[in-house]
Amino acid sequence: MSASPSDTELRGALAQLKNAYPTLGVPKLRIKLREEQSWAVSEVRIKKILAENASGNPLVPVSHPMPASAIAVLPSSVHVKIFGPPKGKGLVAAQDIQSGEALWEENPWIIAPEWDLYDLQQQGGACAHCSTTFRRSGFPCEECGDAFCNRLCLNRARETGHRIMCTKAGRALLSYARQNTWQALHALVKATARIAQTHETDVLDAFATLGMEERYQFTRADASSMRSVWRQAFELYLDAFKNNIKQLGELATFEGFLKGLGKMSLNLESHGGLYPLHSHINHSCEPNISVRHLHQQTALARITILPKRDIPKGEELTITYIDPELPYARRKQMLAEWGFDCQCTRCVREKAEGAPDLSELESELKAGLGVL
Predict the structure, then answer these.
(1) Domain named SET: which ranges (predicted)?
(2) How many CB atoms lie within 10 A of CB 364?
């Protein structure tokens, strides 16, 4: 028999079995798990996971407000609102907002930049802390050779996790993320290194969370091919942080690691930054604000939030997580990766006007191919 599965692995496997064999009871599901996965799982545990899956709770992204210490400036024009499940937290206009006026600027809590900038950092052409590009040689780290703007940037990096990334195991983990172009892993490494030194677990906990197995369930994809990859990454991850296990808490478990990866995937801004206040902003297919990178030197670090139109007091601030020009069905499919079914005014309107639902398209496609 193989090792006992984590709750996340078991939850994903049971969801797939129930989709394939919806009439099977617990005893027969237990037999199927033994046949297909070589897992010896008790009926009590299977019942517990099935009850959780039926309630829907594990598949709802969990979201909490950021601690005040994590937010440098909360502009007077907005306030945090808790909408409750499944939406969680959000930002609402505390006063009438005029179009064209910057609402706030924000630096990242961590940044796992896009790979072209990461490669430039590795070549010594950009600061490994703030992402500023160089016209001259950067200030090097004596231990690993990474380049920084100056000693101040180097010291700030060391205070927020760079010392761990200097180790041989840390470099191996970053190389693995680069080889697999795995930005979520890169970001989780940066976040873990930071909390290992700063103990800011309350900040990491506040970012919206949805595990990797659950994300695959939403997109109806088969996660089986990824589990060995996740395990390999987890082993490298534990090796890199073996001297910091006590500070990691749940992240030191495989289930916590998968939640961490899901957390990064949900919250990373498109260029790789993780921002405490920005993470409060929910999606709409008709967003009323946009995120811009206006600073030339730190173009992929500091962000500026701009209103797209006048926003009345009390209206929620929203951005788009995807290309809003996509048709309804495609938007719905892509937003499943964030663990929700968009009910913004545009989606409600387009559905009412007859935009085809994704499930209907899937049924039609299967019927056309003769697939039951």
Answers:
(1) 76-322
(2) 11
